[in-house]
Design goal:
By secondary structure, the chain is an alpha/beta fold. It has one domain. It is 52% helix and 7% strand. The chain has twelve helices and six strands. A four-stranded mixed β-sheet has the order 1-2-6-5. It is globular and about 45 Å long.
Length: 286
């Protein structure tokens, strides 16, 4: 995808992970990332749940150092970091336009992107997490947390190393930010507290599918920047992290929290059609 170079005045980026901050792109071969990806994407562990579990079993993780907030330095520290900063700027610009079109421009707020690699990160409201927690969004500090080493694992899971698969992950987490600032997330969380476990899981599936759909909205509104093969890369990534694919059929559909491969691909495709109102219908509880 041919995104414009980032302007550090237009994005909020920091790095607070251990292990030397944001490293260069490369293979990792770390089994914990596989387990964490399954735990996060398949079982819908929210940051609070993931964090407490990971902290109790991985006391050997490196502690995060002081957060670096020099956007230029962070964004140019690696290939993945530069790509993420370009993606964040595009997402900010696209969603700001969407809010303006809907007469909600004053409600739009940019999220912060925290990039770290092979370390431990501390959030402002969702506790702390190691690299094993995978990408997540913390609503308390409106920050997207991405360990860039996850992208290497994603490439193996999705069967490709295309940049659009990585943009899809970022855009999905950005979708959770949209849910937060519009109030959708709060409504769903409230409904989950009154629901049975199976019903709560289904509500979580709707949340995740809507975030996938929002990722498609971003891509659909930037079709002039899409290159041949990008859409296929996104679909492969969405299918690779479906609950049914990751659990190999060992978990019942009642325990799904992110949706099947088919559902995730369909939600992404729905957003690509450019109708964000259709995405909003996903979380409507009737």
């Amino acid at each position: 995808m041919r995104l414009n170079p980032f302007n550090s005045d237009n994005i909020k980026v920091r790095s607070s992970g251990g292990g030397g901050g944001v490293g260069k792109a490369g293979g990792i071969g770390c089994g914990t990332i596989v387990l964490a990806a399954i735990g996060y994407f398949a079982f819908g562990l929210d940051p609070m749940q993931t964090i407490s579990t990971v902290e109790s079993v991985q006391q050997t993780g490196q502690q995060s150092g002081p957060a670096s907030t020099n956007e230029q330095e962070i964004c140019n520290s690696s290939e993945y970091a530069l790509e993420a900063c370009n993606g964040l700027q595009s997402l900010n610009q696209t969603w700001a336009r969407v809010f303006q079109e809907q007469g909600l421009g004053d409600r739009f707020q940019q999220p912060t992107l925290d990039l770290f690699r092979n370390g431990r990160v501390t959030t402002d409201g969702c506790g702390s997490a190691t690299s094993a927690s995978g990408p997540f969004y913390c609503p308390a500090d409106q920050t997207i947390y991405i360990d860039t080493s996850f992208y290497d694992q994603l490439a193996r899971m999705a069967g490709n190393r295309g940049d659009f698969a990585r943009y899809y992950v970022l855009a999905h987490e950005y979708g959770h930010h949209i849910q937060t600032i519009t109030g959708i997330s709060g409504q769903i969380r409230s409904a989950q507290q009154r629901a049975s476990r199976a019903q709560a899981n289904q509500l979580q599936v709707r949340m995740e599918l809507q975030a996938d759909c929002y990722a498609g909205v971003w891509a659909g509104r930037n079709r002039n920047l899409i290159e041949p093969g990008d859409i296929e890369e996104g679909m492969q990534a969405a299918a690779a992290i479906g609950d049914d694919r990751l659990t190999g059929g060992r978990v019942s559909s009642e325990n799904f929290t992110h949706g099947t491969s088919a559902q995730r691909s369909q939600a992404l495709r729905l957003g690509l059609q450019g109708n964000d109102a259709a995405c909003d219908e996903i979380t409507v509880v009737r």
